[in-house]
Amino acid sequence: MPVRDTGNRLLIDEAMASARMPLVWTYEVGRSTTALDLVADGFRAALLPQSSMNADRVAICELQTPNIARPIGLLSRLGQGYSPAVTVFKAEIHKVAAAGDFT
Asked: What are the LysR substrate-binding domain coordinates in residue numbering (predicted)?
């Protein structure tokens, strides 16, 4: 579903090739929200990041095989201190990452 040369498409293509599970793409879209809209309007299914899911609009089925994971990063400006809210947020991210609980 994602157009070629996007991060999501590269991850999906690599994971599917490694698992020897070829996909035949019917539609390619530039945004996850467009794919979500297509599915909500009845266009079968789409592979989307969990962060873009909206269970109020579509049924969600987690892909078990292959496992597709996307690294994320937390950016900050060099030499700038953190607000109390950012400090708490960073601590929570580190706690979740250490526990491996990414749901």
From this structure: 4-96
- pLDDT at site 13: 84
Low-confidence ranges of the chain (pLDDT < 70): 1-5, 101-103
User: For residues 34-70, b (16+ Cβ closer than 10 Å) or e, as one string?
Assistant: bbbebbeeeeeebbbeeeeeeeeebeeeeeeeeeeee
Alpha helices in the chain (DSSP H): 7-18, 32-40, 84-99
Cα torsion angle, 36, 101, 72, 83, sign: positive
Residue 25 CB neighbours (<10 A): 13
Does the global pTM surpass 0.70? Answer: no
23 in Cβ contact with 9 (< 8 Å): no
